[in-house]
């Protein structure tokens, strides 16, 4: 039965046209599709694997400069030996060196970590002997919690809440696919020994004696068992502290024959740490019904954070956790503890996915409507049936290939929707055409197969061109954008391939069953303009086309008009760079800003507070409370949780920005949750924009405080939007340079949330023991150190063993704040010498005022300091160019001009051989990388399509005519963005790439038809005109399908650009293509026929 | 007419009652509570050097007997308060009495002898005029009379000495104080110089402490020193440096310092205390202890923001008397609630007491 003449399309059609397998195929594909939808993990954004790890090495007592030389630099050298390492960022602090290793995006996590472990541990010998063992800790995006529950109450304090939270966390750990469950916030139980230095002195007890007594009297150990009365009996020494009373009644010294108890010289308490250094509070905002119900707006809070295992479905995990928590609430959580879900990435992913599925259906319905109008009910139905099958196949492939269902995948599907109906439309249309002929009635099956076979090659070619274009993305993109856009590059080609397959298998089968000759007739009557007789649109087309074909001056005018429009469009994007008032400042009224990805309307944002390093936690708290007052006035805020003294629960963005792990008295964070975005009119961008100046107003009372309002980026997260990396040989010089660059930043339009990595100088009391004096007084330096450690910070002496306690309870001795010892006068602290006499520390130690060691930062083996900023409303490109202009010609601290780099397409590594250097990083760098890659992808795609067409047409010129449709699309793109008030973004660029695939297909069909007409013997003039007119409808149909299919995407901040590029580009390109391509073909053909002759002077006649 | 008036009166009373209750309801329900507030100001606060030490007594008297003899009476016990002049110990006086009697007899004999000698001189004087006796005899009689006079003098002083011995046999308290130790009991032998009992004077109490060498030069002995006694709830006593013992320990590098304490019945020697020696002054924010409250496990105060009280977490430092130093969290010129109670919460609307304005 197989006809050797049949091509791939024909053969598929023939095999399946009557086969029972077709039904099996349809049912199987549909079922598998449903399975794929249910089984594929859902996420909001694609997973970006970017393995990173921190190597920590301690070198006790070493200054940061020493740590830099002895620990950090050898480690960097070791790490640099590892292949696949992208960047190395190190921090040398006093006594500690941290080296953060950033592997290239997409590297296997486990393998990378093993390589790192291996190298670091093997190279232990290159570190100083007294350095600690390197600790490697992975910075894992998988461990970022997806669900957080906050426990808050106005009846219980954070200590009680933490105990409840611990119990809840225990019950959550067994939930399937949950990885890390952690409780953040809340103070731990401890037995605190608050030493009173004066009483110690009065009783003649020194700190050293106290220390020794505590650690020597808390012992328990199993001993060798004994045999008594024929039985083995165990023996255990039991002398542990089991309660605060045990500690209280401990004798620490015997003074003048009298025992001195702990209670005589210290206050012993059992409970939470009284000297708070970190805390968290939770408040309901006006958007919640519970606002104002409690005594106080601020409730003590403790948070349970839950992360999921890699590759599992966030939605399922989140729901399972929430279910458990709800059951626990009913079972044992006290009623006056509020348990609030403060983060639910599962919900977020589910909402995003469901919304997009809804959008997909809307798009499908719109496309269906277009099809019904153009093709008629039956054909439209057949085409629409193919769509779910194609989507099912695509999702199945994604599932098998490990691509999750996320926003990007779904946008890719919506994008593909406009394209994938095309193959089916072409097939059904050709079958339709064949059915009209009388011959078809004799052998319907053969006619169907024949019809499919006929258009097979052209369809394959067109589809293949589109696939190629998207695959080029896969090849050209690098770094984080590659992982982010990976689903687009995979899903669209897959959908295209599936669309051909389904078009060749299902459409002929369905046409054969349901499309009768009769029906075709009916439709033809109804829709007379289908073929042959020209309809109203065709008439209009022909009327417009005629003068173009006949008059040269009209053509020239037309060409000029196109040229002007094109220049105008490009200028909209480029004006900002060339305009006389410079690149800084607001965007001109007709301009279109060029950015990377615009901001999104989210349900949450983060306020990151960073005070000068010398700020006590109470002052940080004061500012946070003032900000909280502002937050409590906003109706759009559901709740907010403040973290003081430490960063909040880590999120993906914070991890990349480096704000996630911060701690210290100068650090705070406020996580603000807004009402659902569908339920409020103001977008999160507006809310943040309104809030920012009001917070800035508070900062006048807090000089040096930096408050950033961080919105989750729509795309991949970055350290800062605008980031200047300053490299140089000398830390002091870098510091000065950092100040100057910061100055330039702050003078730039729209720059907000300025940050830098230069800490303020922290005054330090350097305690220097006089070794000679100490020796004469018979006191060792170690004793001095031990006493000082008890006075400043206290010491964890041992662990108590209270009954019924699940957490370790430390016994901690310290000098409380009310007895604070002035470090400049240590006369109240005594150590006992070998004669047993008490010697005041003030006689052995002198205090020298100094400044604390400043951390030294390295990036890629060079000393670095960062200046970063966010932009409220504009794009980084302009800001960077503006700042660059300001900094140009600046002299670096070494007197040489400051080198500047990383503004080109190639990324540069730092190099300070020629002095100080400024490299631009942040979103700017990623924008450039992405545009570079996308430009490569576009040129690669165009070149491949060109070669494909050359092979197809066996001509060099005709493919050029075909591809002339691509630049025509540019005319629509920038005005389209301007009309909708959108930025030109990276996805707009992807839109251009997609656009080139689509419009090439249009012109390809026109040229195919012209050549067909020519073959049938029509004269060139008529053939050209006719082809344009006949193909007008199918082209319009495809264009409408694409425009309406993608229209739903326009509102999305990320993929809006893609949709705008595609819609406006396709629309303009299509309208122009139907004129330009036939004319160019005409001109080309005429030029060939009359190689010597010029054009007839038609213009003169006119 | 009378009935009408009565009804009107009753009505008026009812109306008054209603209106007052309504008025009261408005007063208690609607308006926010009143709190006294105060403006935080940096005040000059002493920089103190605190040394721990003990109260000691300056007057510690060890009583011993001058005479040897059995202790006839010793009734006082340790801890007993005694006043100046109270009889403490009596030594058996028998020996002394005998000596007195003997001396008295001696005096009598001498007196008799003197009388006889004087009589002789008188007699010989008249006879010498008539030359019945020789001048030589008269001269000798005068010598005998002078000798007898001296002998009487001698005997009289011996009697006085014997009588004085009797005083030493009963020991009275030389000061107002407390008996702190009793070494002998009644019936025991009191020997010369051996301590019988110790009495401590309550008149002058000292505070003894050790200062380190490095702070020695900074101490101005003219400035008063405040001494806080722990057991007396940190009650402060103003003292004056009496002296610094100018000889230090060469190992511990400490010098003894004595502070004279004011007389106060609560002070007892041996009490543990801390002396705050003022080195200088500095500006510090001090707030009353009552203003510091605990909310959510945090210590802080309520800061006035318009009419709203906002809780502010504060870092408190050392306590000086009833005021607490605020190390961080408050700034000069802010107004805080000077005494908050448990009904005051963050964000509560309050009214400021008029007097505080």
TrEMBL record, chain A:
<feature type="transmembrane region" description="Helical">
    <location>
        <begin position="1030"/>
        <end position="1049"/>
    </location>
</feature>
<dbReference type="InterPro" id="IPR001036">
    <property type="entry name" value="Acrflvin-R"/>
</dbReference>
<feature type="transmembrane region" description="Helical">
    <location>
        <begin position="553"/>
        <end position="575"/>
    </location>
</feature>
<protein>
    <submittedName>
        <fullName>Acriflavin resistance protein</fullName>
    </submittedName>
</protein>
<feature type="transmembrane region" description="Helical">
    <location>
        <begin position="484"/>
        <end position="507"/>
    </location>
</feature>
<keyword id="KW-0472">Membrane</keyword>
<dbReference type="InterPro" id="IPR027463">
    <property type="entry name" value="AcrB_DN_DC_subdom"/>
</dbReference>
<dbReference type="Pfam" id="PF00873">
    <property type="entry name" value="ACR_tran"/>
</dbReference>
<feature type="transmembrane region" description="Helical">
    <location>
        <begin position="382"/>
        <end position="402"/>
    </location>
</feature>
<feature type="transmembrane region" description="Helical">
    <location>
        <begin position="356"/>
        <end position="375"/>
    </location>
</feature>
<dbReference type="GO" id="GO:0005886">
    <property type="term" value="C:plasma membrane"/>
</dbReference>
<feature type="transmembrane region" description="Helical">
    <location>
        <begin position="1055"/>
        <end position="1081"/>
    </location>
</feature>
<keyword id="KW-1133">Transmembrane helix</keyword>
<dbReference type="GO" id="GO:0042910">
    <property type="term" value="F:xenobiotic transmembrane transporter activity"/>
</dbReference>
<feature type="transmembrane region" description="Helical">
    <location>
        <begin position="461"/>
        <end position="478"/>
    </location>
</feature>
<feature type="transmembrane region" description="Helical">
    <location>
        <begin position="21"/>
        <end position="38"/>
    </location>
</feature>
<feature type="transmembrane region" description="Helical">
    <location>
        <begin position="934"/>
        <end position="953"/>
    </location>
</feature>
<feature type="transmembrane region" description="Helical">
    <location>
        <begin position="986"/>
        <end position="1010"/>
    </location>
</feature>
<feature type="transmembrane region" description="Helical">
    <location>
        <begin position="960"/>
        <end position="980"/>
    </location>
</feature>
<feature type="transmembrane region" description="Helical">
    <location>
        <begin position="408"/>
        <end position="431"/>
    </location>
</feature>
<keyword id="KW-0812">Transmembrane</keyword>
From TrEMBL, chain B:
<keyword id="KW-0732">Signal</keyword>
<dbReference type="InterPro" id="IPR006143">
    <property type="entry name" value="RND_pump_MFP"/>
</dbReference>
<dbReference type="Pfam" id="PF25954">
    <property type="entry name" value="Beta-barrel_RND_2"/>
</dbReference>
<dbReference type="GO" id="GO:0015562">
    <property type="term" value="F:efflux transmembrane transporter activity"/>
</dbReference>
<comment type="similarity">
    <text>Belongs to the membrane fusion protein (MFP) (TC 8.A.1) family.</text>
</comment>
<dbReference type="GO" id="GO:1990281">
    <property type="term" value="C:efflux pump complex"/>
</dbReference>
<dbReference type="InterPro" id="IPR058625">
    <property type="entry name" value="MdtA-like_BSH"/>
</dbReference>
<protein>
    <submittedName>
        <fullName>Efflux transporter periplasmic adaptor subunit</fullName>
    </submittedName>
</protein>
<feature type="domain" description="Multidrug resistance protein MdtA-like barrel-sandwich hybrid">
    <location>
        <begin position="61"/>
        <end position="196"/>
    </location>
</feature>
<feature type="signal peptide">
    <location>
        <begin position="1"/>
        <end position="24"/>
    </location>
</feature>
<dbReference type="Pfam" id="PF25917">
    <property type="entry name" value="BSH_RND"/>
</dbReference>
<feature type="domain" description="CusB-like beta-barrel">
    <location>
        <begin position="208"/>
        <end position="276"/>
    </location>
</feature>
<dbReference type="InterPro" id="IPR058792">
    <property type="entry name" value="Beta-barrel_RND_2"/>
</dbReference>
């Amino acid at each position: 039965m197989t006809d050797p003449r049949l091509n791939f399309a024909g053969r598929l059609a023939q095999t399946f046209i009557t086969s029972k397998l077709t039904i099996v195929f349809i049912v199987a594909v549909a079922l598998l599709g449903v399975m794929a939808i249910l089984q594929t993990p859902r996420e909001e954004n694609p997973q970006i694997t970017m393995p990173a790890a921190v190597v920590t090495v301690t070198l006790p007592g070493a200054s940061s400069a020493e740590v830099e030389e002895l620990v950090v630099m050898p480690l960097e050298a070791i790490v640099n030996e590892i292949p696949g390492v992208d960047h190395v960022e190190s921090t040398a602090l006093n006594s500690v060196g941290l080296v953060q290793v950033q592997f290239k995006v997409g590297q296997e996590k486990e393998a990378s970590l093993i390589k790192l472990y291996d190298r670091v541990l093997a190279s232990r010998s290159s570190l100083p002997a007294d350095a600690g063992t390197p600790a490697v800790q992975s910075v894992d995006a998988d461990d970022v919690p997806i669900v957080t529950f906050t426990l808050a109450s106005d009846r219980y304090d954070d200590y009680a809440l933490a105990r409840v939270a611990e119990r809840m966390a225990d019950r959550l750990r067994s939930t399937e696919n949950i990885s890390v469950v952690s409780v953040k916030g809340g103070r731990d139980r401890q037995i605190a020994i608050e030493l009173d230095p004066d009483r110690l002195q009065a009783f003649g007890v020194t700190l050293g004696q106290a220390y020794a007594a505590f650690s020597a009297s808390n012992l328990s150990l199993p001993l060798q068992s004994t045999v008594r009365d024929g039985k083995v009996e165990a023996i255990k020494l039991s002398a542990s502290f089991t309660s605060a009373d045990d500690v209280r009644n401990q004798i620490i010294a015997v003074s003048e024959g009298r025992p001195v108890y702990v209670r005589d010289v210290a206050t012993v308490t059992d409970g939470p740490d009284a000297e708070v250094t970190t805390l968290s509070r939770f408040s309901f905002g006006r958007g919640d019904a519970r606002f104002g119900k409690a005594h106080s707006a601020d409730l003590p809070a403790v948070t349970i954070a839950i992360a999921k295992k890699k590759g599992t479905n966030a939605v399922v995990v989140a729901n399972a956790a929430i279910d458990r928590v709800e059951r626990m609430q009913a079972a044992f959580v006290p009623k006056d503890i509020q348990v609030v879900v403060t983060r639910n990435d599962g919900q977020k992913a589910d909402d995003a996915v469901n919304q997009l599925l809804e959008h997909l259906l809307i798009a499908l319905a719109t496309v269906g409507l277009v099809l019904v109008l153009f093709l008629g009910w039956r054909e439209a139905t057949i085409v629409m049936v193919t769509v779910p099958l194609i989507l099912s196949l695509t999702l199945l492939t994604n599932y098998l290939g490990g691509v999750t269902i996320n926003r990007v995948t779904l946008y890719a599907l919506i994008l593909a929707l406009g394209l994938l109906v095309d193959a089916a439309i072409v097939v059904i249309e050709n079958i339709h055409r064949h059915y009209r002929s009388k011959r078809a009635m004799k052998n319907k099956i053969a006619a169907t197969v024949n019809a499919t076979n006929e258009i097979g090659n052209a369809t394959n070619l067109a589809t293949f061109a589109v696939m190629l274009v998207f695959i080029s993305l896969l090849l050209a993109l690098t770094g984080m954008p590659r992982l982010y856009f990976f689903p687009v590059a995979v899903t669209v080609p897959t959908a295209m391939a599936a669309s051909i397959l389904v078009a060749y298998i299902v459409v002929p089968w369905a046409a054969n069953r349901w499309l009768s000759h009769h029906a075709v007739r009916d439709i033809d009557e109804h829709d007379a303009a289908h073929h042959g007789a020209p309809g109203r649109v065709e008439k209009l087309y022909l009327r417009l086309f005629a003068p173009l074909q006949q008059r040269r001056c009209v053509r020239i005018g037309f060409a000029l008009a196109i040229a002007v429009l094109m220049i105008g469009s490009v200028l909209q994007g480029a004006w900002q760079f060339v305009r006389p008032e410079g690149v800084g400042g607001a965007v001109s009224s007709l301009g279109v800003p060029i950015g990377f990805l615009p901001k999104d309307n989210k349900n949450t944002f983060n306020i990151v507070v960073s005070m000068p390093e010398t700020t006590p936690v109470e002052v940080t708290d004061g500012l946070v409370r003032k900000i909280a007052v502002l937050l409590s006035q906003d109706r759009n805020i559901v709740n907010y949780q403040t973290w003081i003294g430490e960063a909040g629960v880590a999120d993906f963005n914070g991890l990349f920005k480096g704000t996630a792990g911060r701690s210290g008295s100068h650090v705070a964070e406020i996580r603000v949750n807004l009402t659902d975005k569908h339920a409020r009119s103001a977008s999160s961008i507006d809310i943040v924009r309104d809030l920012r100046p009001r917070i800035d107003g508070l900062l006048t009372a807090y000089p040096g405080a930096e408050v950033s309002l961080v919105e989750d980026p729509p795309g991949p997260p970055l350290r800062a939007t605008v980031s200047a990396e300053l490299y140089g040989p000398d830390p002091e010089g870098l510091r000065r340079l950092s100040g100057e660059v910061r100055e330039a930043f702050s003078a730039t339009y729209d720059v907000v949330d300025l940050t830098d990595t230069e800490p303020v100088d922290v005054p330090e009391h350097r305690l220097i023991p006089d070794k000679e004096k100490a020796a004469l007084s018979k006191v060792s330096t170690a004793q001095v150190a031990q006493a000082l450690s008890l006075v400043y910070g206290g010491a964890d002496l041992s662990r108590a063993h209270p009954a019924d306690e699940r957490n370790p309870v430390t016994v901690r001795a310290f000098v409380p704040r009310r007895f604070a010892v002035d470090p400049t006068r240590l006369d109240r602290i005594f150590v006992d010498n070998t004669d047993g006499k008490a010697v005041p520390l003030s006689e052995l130690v002198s205090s020298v005022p100094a400044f604390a060691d400043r951390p030294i930062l390295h990036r890629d083996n060079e000393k670095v300091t960062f200046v970063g900023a966010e932009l409220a409303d504009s794009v980084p490109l302009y800001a960077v160019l503006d700042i660059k202009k300001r900094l140009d010609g600046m002299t670096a601290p070494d007197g040489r001009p400051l080198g500047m780099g990383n503004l080109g397409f190639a990324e540069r590594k730092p190099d300070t051989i020629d002095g100080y250097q400024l490299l631009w990083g942040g979103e700017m760098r990623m924008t450039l990388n992405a545009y570079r890659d996308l430009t490569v992808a576009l040129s690669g795609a165009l070149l491949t399509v060109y070669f494909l067409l050359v092979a197809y047409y066996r001509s060099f010129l005709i493919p050029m005519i075909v591809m002339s449709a691509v630049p025509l699309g540019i005319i629509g793109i920038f005005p389209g963005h301007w009309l909708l008030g959108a930025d030109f973004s990276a996805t707009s660029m992807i839109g251009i790439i997609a656009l080139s695939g689509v419009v090439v297909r249009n012109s390809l069909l026109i040229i195919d038809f012209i050549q067909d007409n020519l073959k049938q013997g029509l004269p060139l003039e008529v053939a050209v005109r006719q082809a344009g007119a006949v193909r007008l409808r199918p082209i319009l149909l495809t264009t409408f399908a694409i425009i309406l299919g993608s229209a739903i995407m326009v509102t999305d901040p990320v993929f809006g650009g893609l949709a705008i590029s595609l819609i406006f580009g396709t629309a303009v390109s299509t309208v122009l293509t139907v004129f330009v391509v036939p004319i160019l073909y005409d001109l080309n053909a005429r030029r060939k026929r009359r190689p010597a002759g010029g054009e007839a002077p038609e213009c003169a006649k006119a | 007419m009378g009935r009408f008036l009565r009804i009107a009166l009753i009505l008026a009373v009812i109306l008054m009652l209603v209106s007052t209750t309504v008025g009261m309801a408005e007063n208690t329900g609607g308006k926010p509570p009143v709190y006294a507030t105060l403006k935080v100001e940096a005040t000059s606060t002493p920089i103190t050097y605190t040394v721990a030490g003990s109260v000691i007594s300056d007057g510690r008297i060890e009583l011993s007997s001058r005479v040897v003899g059995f202790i006839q009476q010793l009734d006082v016990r340790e801890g007993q308060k005694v006043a100046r002049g109270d009889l403490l110990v009596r030594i058996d006086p028998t020996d002394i009495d005998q000596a007195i009697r003997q001396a008295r007899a001696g005096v009598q004999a001498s007196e008799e002898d003197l009388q006889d000698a004087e009589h002789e001189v008188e007699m010989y004087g008249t006879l010498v005029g008539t030359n019945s006796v020789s001048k030589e005899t008269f001269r000798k009689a005068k010598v005998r009379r002078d000798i007898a006079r001296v002998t009487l003098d001698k005997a009289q002083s011996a009697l006085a000495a014997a009588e004085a011995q009797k005083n030493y046999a009963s020991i009275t308290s030389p000061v107002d104080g407390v008996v702190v130790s009793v070494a002998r009991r009644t019936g025991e032998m009191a020997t010369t110089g051996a301590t019988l009992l110790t009495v401590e004077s309550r008149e002058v109490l000292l505070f003894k402490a050790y200062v380190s060498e490095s702070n020695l030069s900074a101490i101005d002995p003219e400035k008063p020193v405040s001494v806080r006694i722990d057991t007396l709830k940190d009650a402060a006593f103003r003292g004056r440096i009496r002296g610094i013992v100018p000889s230090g320990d060469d190992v511990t590098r400490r010098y003894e310092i004595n502070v004279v304490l004011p007389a106060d019945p609560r002070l007892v020697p041996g009490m543990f205390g801390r002396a705050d020696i003022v080195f200088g002054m500095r500006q510090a924010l001090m707030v009353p202890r009552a203003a510091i409250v605990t909310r959510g496990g945090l210590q802080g105060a309520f800061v006035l923001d318009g009419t709203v009280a906002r809780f502010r977490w504060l870092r408190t430092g050392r306590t000086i008397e009833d005021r607490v130093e605020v190390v961080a969290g408050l700034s000069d010129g802010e107004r805080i609630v000077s005494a908050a109670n448990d009904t005051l919460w963050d964000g509560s609307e309050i009214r400021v007491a008029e007097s505080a304005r």
